[in-house]
Design a protein that fits this description.
The protein contains 13 helices and eleven strands. It has 367 residues and is an alpha/beta fold. The strands form three sheets. Strands 1-2-9-6-5-3-4 form a seven-stranded mixed sheet, with helices on both faces. α6 (185-201) runs parallel beside α10 and α9 crosses α12. The termini are far apart. Nicotinamide-adenine-dinucleotide is lined by residues 52, 54-55, 58, 81, 83, 86, 113-117, 119, 139-140, 142-143, 146-147, 150, 152, 162, 179, 182-183, 187, 190, 273-275.
Length: 367
């Protein structure tokens, strides 16, 4: 059985604590979850497995069995399924359960789910008793290639996406590609948007490989998906190791997200999946870069073509430009009131650009 380990190297001599950890990728890994956790260090027997009813129905039993086999006593907590529940009200309910059950500082939290469960469980881990250990067990492609790695945790606020949160690194990320077999095709496509992102921001040759595979990328029954997960995790680990708390280069991971988060918020988190909104946002970023003279028209054309081959939408209609701009101004990358965009210079290279509201509004009006 092929098994891959990728190091996320964080911390260092000047830091009080080394926050480095490993990403393990292996088919069937869920059944080994408890044993893997034991290798990381001493943990209380009592732990909390946070999931949602959809993932819970599929994988809770196997996860609990694996934890119990390793001597853990897991408390299972389910958060309702959906981006609309990614908020502080639901977080509070999780705190209630943890406190009622008297989970202590050495008790680990395990996030079993997609990016929503991962971000929320990570935020609970960052804040419960001022921080407890946690592990990511991502179950969607998007979570396996992106959200489970790097320690961004948090929830949405009624005014915008992911506005409340913390950087808090897991002690380990355990990726079992077998879990993707139950994932809807739409969710696979949404995850592929973030895979395409890595090709645009970091590695043109990876983008070319994706172009060659085109429509077959959505077929997760082949070994190809493991290659995509490994490649994506390696790039994410490299970027996060350079800039853990997004004071510089890490911001490039947000390609398409300034547009995308606004699209999600303006459509009440119900029309588009996160990855779908990011796909539209990446094409918009490409077209904006062309308008600003940063790249040539071929760049957004190639991005659009690849995303369409995957089966993703690349345009959004009916959003009012001024409302769109106002939603984008709530982005975390706004500096001194000015919007900062990640824009492609070429396939494989992006830059961070501060753009005036006037130029942004013109673009949103013309597109
Ligand atoms: P999601 O967590 O909502 O999962 C999508 C759907 O798939 C859900 O209905 C879920 O119940 C279901 N599901 C999960 N695993 C399944 C499985 N194995 N089989 C069948 N169904 C399954 O969505 P997502 O796309 O995984 O994550 C999106 C979230 O991730 C957004 O909130 C986004 O902001 C966040 N995100 C965070 C980061 C980060 O760095 N922290 C990065 C990217 C995205
Ligand atoms: N998904 C953006 C980041 O992890 O920084």
């Amino acid at each position: 059985m092929s098994s891959t380990t990728i190091d996320v190297n964080l911390g260092g001599a000047s830091q009080s604590k080394d926050r480095s950890y490993k990403i393990a990728i292996e088919r069937g890994l869920l059944n080994d979850l408890g044993a893997r956790m034991l290798t990381v260090g001493p943990l209380n027997k009592r732990c909390a497995l946070i999931t949602n009813p959809t993932v819970g129905a599929l994988y809770r039993k196997a996860a609990v069995a694996s934890l119990e086999d390793a001597g853990f006593l897991p408390l299972v907590i389910e958060i309702p399924d959906g981006e609309e529940y990614k908020n502080l009200t639901e977080i509070e309910k999780v705190y209630d359960r943890l406190l009622e059950e008297r989970l202590e500082r050495g008790s680990a939290i395990i996030a079993l789910g997609g990016g929503v469960v991962g971000d929320m469980a990570g935020f609970v881990a960052a804040t419960y008793l001022r921080g407890v250990p946690y592990f990511q067990v991502p179950t969607t492609l998007l979570a396996q290639v992106d959200s489970s790695v790097g320690g961004k945790t948090g929830v949405n606020h009624r005014l915008g996406k992911n506005l409340i949160g913390a950087f808090y690194q897991p002690l380990g990320v355990y990726i079992d590609p077998e879990l993707l077999k139950t994932l809807e095709a739409r969710e696979v496509r949404a995850g592929l948007a973030e895979v395409v992102k890595y090709g645009i921001i970091w590695e043109g040759s990876f983008f070319e490989m994706l172009e060659e595979s085109g429509t077959s990328l959505g077929d997760i029954s082949t070994g190809k998906v493991i290659e995509l997960i490994e490649h994506s995790c390696r790039i994410k680990a490299e970027v996060v190791a350079k800039d853990e708390r997004e004071s510089g280069v890490r911001a490039i991971l947000n390609l398409g997200h300034t547009f995308g988060h606004a699209i999600e918020a303006l459509t009440n988190y119900s029309k588009y999946k996160h990855g779908e909104a990011v796909a539209i946002g990446m094409v918009m970023a490409g077209k904006f870069a062309v308008k600003l003279g940063i790249c040539d028209a071929q760049v957004p054309e190639r991005i659009e073509k690849l995303l369409e081959a995957i089966g993703l939408e690349t345009h959004v209609d009916g959003l009012e430009p001024k409302e769109f701009l106002a939603a984008m101004k709530l982005d975390k990358k706004v500096k001194g009131g000015t919007l900062r965009f990640v824009l492609p210079k070429a396939i494989g290279e992006v830059s961070l650009c501060d753009i005036s509201d006037g130029d942004t509004l013109n673009f949103l009006t013309d597109i």
